[in-house]
Design brief:
- The protein is an alpha/beta fold and 380 residues long.
- It has a single domain (1-380), classed as Spore Coat Polysaccharide Biosynthesis Protein SpsA, Chain A (Alpha-Beta Complex), CATH 3.90.550.
- The chain is built from twelve helices and eight strands.
- Bound molecules: guanosine-5'-triphosphate and magnesium ion.
- Residues 134, 136 line the site of magnesium ion.
Length: 380
């Protein structure tokens, strides 16, 4: 039994070490805001809006874009639509009596998935900067100004922002987003960040390259390819948006597992970048490999080993360990952990990444997913 206990403690320590290292780096650098040399500018911008059956919320989304603090003459809206519902009619009607912003509507005959739709939309975008925004999100009026100010820095070719308010009030998601914002700020100060967010990502049009049509991490893939080609890809917490999320365990799995799977697959496809490309390949990518691929498995192994060790030592009393984990999960999904809620948020993400890696190995995924109608209610 003793060796099992030693193995469990060793595993816990091993899992924690890179996190402690990253925490140390954070305390040393104390990063705040964007590291870019920001300068105000007003380039022409193409706003790319992909839509699949968004009839209930697309008009509200377009009104939200109209409220952006940016000259409408400098804006073009590129909608790429593969809906079976009235979404394209609503879009056309919305632009009927408007001169600006202008509309470019791409209608797909058949749904092929988000990534190929985006490739088409990016190719059709005619302005200097492209902003990609998901229909199910609310972007702050000043977000675009903050974004283009980052792109004024010659080294910066892509920038994303933060989920400043989780619609639907999920504390699990809020806890995770707050931690993620700190991690991504540090990554940006080191070199570039990995994850780009669907609600708001901005790219210099010249820097855009096609992404894998099967991609399940479209925004992140584009940013990673841009970094590969030499441009910096940053996270700026001054760029704010709101996105809805669930706290309930099962409901979280659908969206989070798919997103996790997309990210893991992307890391593996671009494994040659580890160790190269400055601090991006030497620190940022290895940290994300650890968080997304290694640590979920170490954590799962620790839980199993720990339970066996506890039962062998304490008999049935040892079952207190898995029961405590279960209670932690139950309380966490009910947003009832108070100050420990962020810890559960991290655990929840590790569960998604663990499940995602299994789904990836089994080939159990699809790039034309069901739209989450529950989440859409937050925008109606
Ligand atoms: N053109 C096109 N747009 C799509 C397709 N699939 C999704 N979208 C749009 O892409 C954006 C992101 O899709 P979501 O379903 O919100 O993806 P998600 O945010 O990861 O997941 P949920 O919000 O949980 O549904 C939304 O604006 C969708 O309408 C597609 O196959 N083609
Ligand atoms: Mg969404």
């Amino acid at each position: 039994m003793e060796p099992l206990l030693v193995a469990t403690v060793t595993l816990i320590t091993l899992t924690a070490l890179p996190y402690l290292g990253f925490l140390g780096l954070y305390a040393w650098i104390r990063p705040t805001g964007s590291p870019a040399a920001k300068a105000p500018q007003e380039p022409s911008v193409s706003v790319v809006l992909p839509t699949y059956n968004e009839a209930s919320i697309v008009a509200g989304k377009l009104e939200g874009i109209d409220a952006w603090d940016y000259p409408a003459e400098n804006l073009e809206i590129v909608v790429v639509d593969s809906s079976e519902d009235a979404t394209p009619d609503i879009v056309r009607e919305y632009f009927e009596d408007r001169d600006s912003p202008t509309l470019e509507l791409i209608e797909e005959e058949e749904r092929r998935g988000l990534a190929p739709a985006l490739n088409d939309a990016y190719a059709a975008a005619s302005n200097d900067v492209v902003v990609k925004t998901d229909c199910d999100s609310e972007v702050a009026p000043d977000a675009l100004r903050e974004a283009v100010a980052n792109l004024a820095d010659d080294d910066v070719a892509a920038v994303t922002g933060r989920n400043a308010e989780v619609l639907g009030g999920s504390d699990v998601e809020t806890g995770y987003r707050d931690i993620q914002a700190r991690v991504q700020t540090l990554e940006s100060h080191l070199d570039s960040t990995l994850i780009f967010h669907g609600p708001f990502s901005a790219f210099e049009t010249d820097a855009i390259v096609p992404i894998d049509p099967d991609s399940l991490a479209d925004d992140t893939e584009l940013a990673l390819r841009i970094r590969r080609n030499g441009g910096r890809a940053l996270f700026d917490p001054a760029i704010r948006y709101k996105e809805a999320a669930h706290s309930a365990f099962r409901k979280r799995r659908t969206q989070k597992d798919r997103r996790g799977l997309g990210l893991i697959r992307l890391l593996i496809q671009h494994r040659d970048m580890v160790g190269a490309y400055g601090r991006y390949g030497r620190v940022v990518l290895p940290f994300n490999w650890w968080f997304m691929i290694v640590s979920p498995w170490l954590l799962a192994t620790t839980l199993v080993l720990g339970t066996v060790a506890a039962v062998l030592t304490l008999g049935l009393t040892g079952l207190v360990l898995p029961l405590a984990v279960l209670a932690f999960v139950l309380a966490g999904t009910r947003d009832a952990l108070g100050p420990f809620q962020p810890l559960y948020a991290l655990f929840d993400t590790q569960i998604s990444l663990f499940r995602a890696s299994i789904e990836l190995v089994r080939g159990d995924y699809d790039n034309t997913w069901e739209v989450d109608t529950d989440l859409r209610e937050a925008y109606e």
